[in-house]
Amino acid sequence: MLAVTAISLAGTLSVAVGVQAYDRINGEGFASRSPVLATGGMAATSQPLATQVALDILKKGGSAVDAAIAANAVQGLMEPTGNGIGGDLFAIVWSAEDKKLHGLNASGRSPKSLLFRYFADNNLEKIPSHGPLPVSVPGAVDGWFELHGKFGRLPMKDLLAPAIHYANSGFPVTQLVAYYWNRSVPVLEKYPGFRETYMPDGRAPREGDIFRNPRLANTLQKIADDGRDAFYKGDIAREIDRYMNANGGFLSYDDLASHKSEWVEPVSTNYRGYDVWELPPNGQGIAALQILNILEDYDLAELGRLSPEYIHLFTEAKKLAFEDRAKYYADPEFNTLPVKELISKSYADKRRKLINPERAAKRYDAGTVALRHGDTIYLTTADKDGNMVSLIQSNYRGMGSGMTPGELGFILQDRGEMFSLREGHFNQYQPGKRPFHTIIPAFVTKDGKPWLSFGVMGGATQPQMHAQVIINMVDFGMNVQEAGDAPRILHTGSSQPTDELMEDGGYLSLEDGFPMETRRKLVQMGHQIRFESGPYGGYQAILKDANGVYHGASESRKDGQAAGY
C-alpha cells in the first residue's frame, strides 16, 4: 500500500509542477517509449489500424509506397479530422534501386472560373475559411496513382481493399480524432452533405463509437475498379461538379479533368554533416532549412536544450525565416522563386547578423534576394529492400471546407484560404494556381545514404518542429523517439503569406518540461510567453542505422503507432 501511495504522489507532483516524466530505467526522462526496431519493414502513422494495414501490405510483398497508399486511404476514413481524398498530398521517396530521392507535389489548383476580381466585387478582404470559396482541386488520389505507377508492386485494388472493408464494416473512433471531430461539428454541420456523412444519429461520434462510411466505400471501390480517371473524369468528378454548381461553388469538371501532379527535385542544406531534404514551394519546407542554416553557427549543444539562450536564438531564427516565407513562398509556375538563394549559407550569414542575442525582435523585414494552424496526417513507411516513404496529406483547416458532395463520403479541402488577396503578392490568388501549402514531408541522408524519414503535422508548426527534431538528434544526442517526445518550442504570430504582418514580436509557447527560470528569463528578454495545450504538432519517423535496422517512432501526443516486423 505504501508503494502505491508513493507512485500516486509522484504522479500528482509531476502534474503540479508541469513536468512530463516517465519512470523509465534508461533514456531521457521525457521519453514515452523506446523506438521500435525491425528489419523486414516498418510503418509509423497516427492511427494504429492504419499502421497495421501498412504492415499487412509489406508482408504481402508490397513496396513502401504500396504500404503508404494503403495506410493513407485508411486514415482518410478513420481520421477525417486531418485528411481524406478531398485534400492534397506531398511525398518524398527514397528509391533503393537508383539510390536517390524523388519528390512529388500532388497539390491541386484553384478553380479556373473563380476570378480575382470576384473577391473585391463581393467586398471580401480575405478568402473565407469554409464553404465553397476556399475549395481547390483535390490532389491526393492523383498523387496515389503517380506514386504507384513509379514505385508500386501490388494492384491498387489490394491497396484500397482495407479502407473499403473498414468503411463498410466500421471501426472504433480513437480519442484525439473524436475530440477534433466534435469540435468541428458546430462549424461544419450547416454545409450540405456533412450531417448525412459525418453525424450518424445527429451527432459526431465519441471515443469508442463504431463509425461506418458506406458512401466513401463506394467511392473508393470506383477508384479501385476504374483507376484515377474515375475520380477526375468519371462519375465522381461529375458529382463534384454538380454539387459545387448547386451550392455556389466554382470547382468544375474541367478543373478536375485537367489536374496533374508534378514530380519535383527535393532541395537540401547540410546541417553539421547531415543533408536535410525538403520539397520546394508552393510548400513551406525550405523554412526549416533556413532555420537550420541560421542556427548552425551557434554551439547549441553547449547552450543546452532547456536554456533561454537556445530558445531565444531558435525563436529569432524562426521569425527571420517566416518573413521570407510570407513574401516568397508560392506556386513556382506563376513566379520565379529564389529558392537557391534563400537556402544558401551566405544568405543565412546575412540574416543571422540581425539577431540581437539579448533581446527579442518585435518585427523583421523579409530579406532581399535575387530575383494558421491546420490539421493534417503524416506517415512514413519502409520496406525490406530499403525503400522509404515520407508522406503527408491534409484537408487543411479542421475537417476541410465542410462541402461534402452528395453520396461520395468525403469533404473537399479548404486550402484556397491560404491565398493572398493583395495584388502583386507572390501568393496572390489567381485562377488555376496552387495555393501556399503548409504540409511538408522531410527526409535526411548521411553520406549519400538514407538516415531519417520524418515529418511533423500541424500547420505553421511544421518547419519549426522539423528543425527541432534535427537539432534534438544532431546537437542534443537524442534517439528517434526521444527527439519527438522532447518538449517543444512554438512561436506564433509571424507574418503570413495571407497578408498578416508581425509587428509585436508574436508570442512563444513552451510545452511542459521547460523550467520556470527559463520562461522568466525569456520574458526579461522581451518574449511574450503563453501557456497552451495542443498546438505542438504530431510526429512520426523511421531511422535507418548503419546495420540496416529500422528504428520507428510515433507521436505520444497523438493516437498513433510505430510497428515493424
UniProtKB/TrEMBL annotation:
GO molecular function per UniProt: leukotriene C4 gamma-glutamyl transferase activity
Reaction(s) this enzyme catalyzes, per UniProt: an S-substituted glutathione + H2O = an S-substituted L-cysteinylglycine + L-glutamate; glutathione + H2O = L-cysteinylglycine + L-glutamate; an N-terminal (5-L-glutamyl)-[peptide] + an alpha-amino acid = 5-L-glutamyl amino acid + an N-terminal L-alpha-aminoacyl-[peptide]
NCBIfam families linked: g_glut_trans
Gene that encodes it: ggt
KW Acyltransferase (keyword) present: yes
EC number of this enzyme: 2.3.2.2, 3.4.19.13
Keywords carried by this UniProt record: Acyltransferase, Glutathione biosynthesis, Hydrolase, Transferase, Zymogen
Protein name (Swiss-Prot/TrEMBL): Glutathione hydrolase proenzyme
Pathway assigned in UniProt: Sulfur metabolism; glutathione metabolism
Reported modifications of this chain: Cleaved by autocatalysis into a large and a small subunit.
One Pfam assignment: G_glu_transpept
